[in-house]
Amino acid sequence: MQPTAHEQRCGYVDCGSTSSDLKCCANCRKVRYCSAKCQTTDWERHIFDCKAGKSISTIYYLARDLGRYTCKVPLHHQTCIDYGFDKAPTELASFYRLLIRDVQVPLTLLRKLQKEGRLVEGIKRIFETCPPEIREEKGGPYHWFLVHHYLFDGRAADPVTQARQMLTHTSTIIIRAWPYAGGSPSDTLETILSKRAEFSTNQFNCFFFVAVIFDQSVPDPDIWLRLTFGFVAEQALNVNLGFKYAELCKRCTFKELCEAYEGSSIPALFTRYGIVDVGHHPLFRDVMSGSPSTFKSVWRLKFYIEDVGHSRPGGHTPPAPSVVADYGYGNCRNAEETKLLDELYAQLFGKHAVDPLALHAACCKGQLLEFAKTYLKLSPWTAKYARLLKNAYPILRARALS
């Protein structure tokens, strides 16, 4: 039922209630809820908008990626460290999802156990309260936990073991995706690698992307494929783009995917196979219009900001030259000023979900400062931001008109 002119819909998407007396989120004052229960339930999602650019506990990154309708290995670096994903990523994703979604362990309890180094002890107690059929299931989650309890001890992964596991996982997903690319299911990894050498760069990128997607994952934030396959527009699409690509690949051939990728026509391929919510979306169409080689600098900026948000401090890729020139990074004198810009753009894209093309338009007019002021309180750094957010576009535009 659509809300009336005086009613609003509850901010928790699974609620659907409408009312003229919804209560505001006390922090951002932007989202309204019909009850404290809905607000509490939605907090694991809303926190990323409400506290964009600020420190967020890793338990919320864990819950976000192990969602109600999806399960993917977390990409956020510190989350992977805190919850052991550097040791056994796929298995731990399934196990933690069971704890959070099926057993419904409160996030605050898991966070407390992790902070205190008591995950092993705490998880044992959690399973002791579960029905006997869950605890006693042969080969079930509790049995798996007892065998692999060392994964939860908080110790860093052994580098040699970690490298071996990564190699095994990469080999597995490549072999699994090979038949889609026209290879024989019986081909060995050595055969696949020798034939893969015949691929063009774009064909190999498509093949590796498909391998990742078929693994029910998404490209890591620092992998260029997140940009070239349009994941920088996923927030606006409001869909799991990885799932949509997996659906597309079930309908189209590998050859069609490669041709669309090379011809900057991936959105048209989505539309051809009936996935119009992706194919017709203007932001996805814009980012893919020049892929895999040409992008507006705002999309490269968003790619960079997403990488910063997921990486260990100092471990992210540097901004592209066009981002340095257009969005103020060339004006930074030290790491502190770079961080100020990182936080500003993280809040614009996250908490305020600004239209990237509107930000791009402001950039081209030399009005980045005015654009930022529309959404953010810049004090006590207003003067510094005024210097940082200058670019050459007004001068370039004047020269073009003269």
TrEMBL record:
Keyword terms: Metal-binding, Zinc, Zinc-finger
Residue ranges annotated for the MYND-type domain, each copy included: 12-50
Gene Ontology molecular-function annotations: zinc ion binding
InterPro entries: Znf_MYND
Keyword Metal-binding: yes
Pfam entry (one): zf-MYND
Gene3D superfamilies given in the database record: 6.10.140.2220
Record keyword S-adenosyl-L-methionine present: no
Protein name per its UniProtKB record: MYND-type domain-containing protein
